[in-house]
Design goal:
Layout: H1 3-33, H2 36-54, H3 69-96, H4 99-106, H5 109-120, H6 127-145, H7 155-178, H8 184-206, H9 214-241, H10 245-249, H11 255-266, H12 273-298
Helix pairs in contact: 1-4, 1-9, 1-11, 2-3, 2-8, 2-9, 3-7, 3-8, 4-7, 4-11, 5-7, 6-12
Length: about 300
């Protein structure tokens, strides 16, 4: 692989990780100006618009003609799963928990994926994988302690449950999408189109469905573009140019550490020692799990 391609891969990957690192702060700021439904509606519409624009180069939108009724039904289901169910629950978790806690609890989906793959994909799991999962879950426990603050407010427990549940939703979403052979950008566009239609329809009954101020729209658009839309494309391009995808994939685990710096500077959150130690254990378990899988794939 030429060095130029490798440089492009790392550039796109680093940009994606930087944007993902800012997402927790954007969630918290957005929830200051609007409720979870308004934030989701604004973000989803923004992402739908951006994804549509990204389909224009190369006339990629023509691939929509390849989608049959079964594909449309699949996108309808996936659009309800992500962004609607996933982000409604995630935003609710962020409305309760500090960003430094909600973000790492949300990122344990690779471990959850291993667990649900046992019954769904009939995969076997070895003792090394079990050890790696226990390491990650010990990190989850430490993060959840919130420096001892978890006992001060009973609602914290609800936030923890919600943040962890999003990992299950994302793991299921990932499993179903790995079987999909359609263009991923076109598929994502269709998913967000159906999600937008659903949110707008349900919003007519709810009322106040849109962000209500310039700042609210600004944060919602940022979430839609840099959490849901453009970052997906950047990451896909990084994988395309990467000399070895495992080297690029591991960069994503810098995000929770960068997130700690950003939430401290922007949100003025005091960083708990339990959060730092918990993230180290959580990420270590995921990286070990990844190495186990790569070693198994080479056999």
């Amino acid at each position: 692989m030429p060095a130029k391609s490798a440089r492009k891969a790392y550039l796109f990957a680093i940009l994606a990780v930087l944007f993902w690192s800012t997402s927790p702060t954007a969630f918290k700021l957005g929830l200051r100006f609007q409720d979870t439904y308004q934030l989701l509606t604004g973000a989803t519409l923004s992402s739908f618009l951006v994804l549509g624009l990204l389909l224009i180069p190369g006339l990629r939108f023509r691939k929509l003609a390849e989608f049959g009724w079964r594909d449309i039904g699949f996108s309808l289901l996936m659009g309800f799963l992500n962004p609607i169910a996933y982000y409604l629950i995630l935003f609710r978790a962020y409305s309760i928990l500090p960003a430094q806690v909600a973000q790492p609890l949300n990122m344990i989906w690779p471990i959850v994926l291993v667990i649900i793959s046992i019954p769904m994909l009939r995969q076997k799991i070895g003792w090394k994988s079990i050890g790696a999962m226990m390491l990650s879950f010990s990190g989850v426990v430490l993060v959840s302690l919130q420096g001892g603050a978890v006992e001060k407010d009973p609602e914290n427990r609800l936030g923890i449950v919600l943040a962890l549940s999003t990992s299950f939703l994302w793991a299921f979403y990932w499993i179903y999408n790995t079987r999909d052979k359609k263009d991923p950008l076109v598929r994502l566009f269709l998913n967000f189109m159906f999600a937008s239609l659903f949110l707008l329809s349900a919003g007519l009954l709810k009322g106040d469905m849109f962000p209500g101020s310039f700042r609210a729209w600004g944060t919602a658009a940022y979430v839609g573009v840099f959490e849901m839309g453009v970052t997906f494309v950047l990451w896909s391009m990084a994988m395309q140019y990467a000399p070895a995808t495992d080297r690029i994939s591991n960069l994503v685990y810098f995000a929770p550490f960068l997130n700690l710096v950003i939430v401290n500077l922007v949100l003025d959150e005091k960083i708990f020692q339990t959060t730092v130690y918990g993230i180290v254990l959580l990420v270590s378990g995921i990286l070990i799990q990844n190495m186990i899988h790569r070693h198994a794939d080479k056999k």
